[in-house]
Amino acid sequence: MDYRRLGASGLKVPALSFGTGTFGGSGPLFGAWGNTDENEARRLVDICLEAGVNLFDTADVYSNGASERVLGEAIRGRRGEVMISTKMALPMGEGPNDAGTSRDRLLRGVDDALKRIGTDYIDLFQLHAFDAETPIEEVLSTLDQLVRDGKLRYVGVSNFSGWQIMKSLALAERHGWPRYVAHQVYYSLIGRDYEWDLMPLGLDQGIGALVWSPLGWGRLTGKIRRGQPLPQGSRLHDTADFGPPVDDERLFGVVDALEEVAQETGKTVPQVAINWLLQRPTVSSVIIGARNEDQLRQNLCAVGWTLSAEQVARLDRASAAEAPYPHFPYRRQEGFARLNPPVV
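^ that's the sequence the OP posted. Answer follows.
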């Protein structure tokens, strides 16, 4: 397993990490992903550790805390061998203070997460969404307190916009509070919006990307093809409306290119899609998930080899999308491009 620095921090994380959204899965979204119990979770953790994958990602909102609880049981007795990433901000109840990142919510929420996981510290704590109603100073000063108390080691965000991150970094620098070192983002061959603003920001500010849904919300498994109905067992029957939108024709073009490269390399379509991500700037780790051992072992084979430059270029062309304003002049016109060349 390749290990990479998490942004500009001193922490090294595996190129692949494991997402525990299926652990204790319940409800219309997480229940459709899977329902991994404690024994199954322990076996998946075993396989991950054997392969060098020692970072496990979860969140309080995953099945209303069940994912954190099952993960805690799966790592019981070997806390020192693993790193835990969890997230908080999305609603965990109907009360007025059961959502967001206020001081009250963060202090209560971190303690609750520690109890569910059965640990006294979290390696990487991320804000799951930007809370527009809480002053950023309140958020950062609370995170600073939690780091000083030893409950959090590194902090990051997920699903933030560029200005939200930059304002936070500026205030952190001004007051000497911990800087965000990670951004958990949606990024895939059919979802390349991350590249317009957030990737250049990550390069400039030393923020590593933890990629969620690298297979485009289950659309890059190789099972969805042009002119064919959605496979009967696909989770997209139940979860498509929860995920990012995609243009079908663009999707099929990307799948065609993936299939060509997969045949050339002797790899699977998902393995090629994940390997492409591992070669992108700022990507510290790609979060993979699995309902069972076979899926996990297949995804783990996305590392240990490298796509050729020509294959990467072919996938780039197949997945390219028109740049939004103000980016399109820098892609279309030579004068603009000379001033601000693209990073990928």
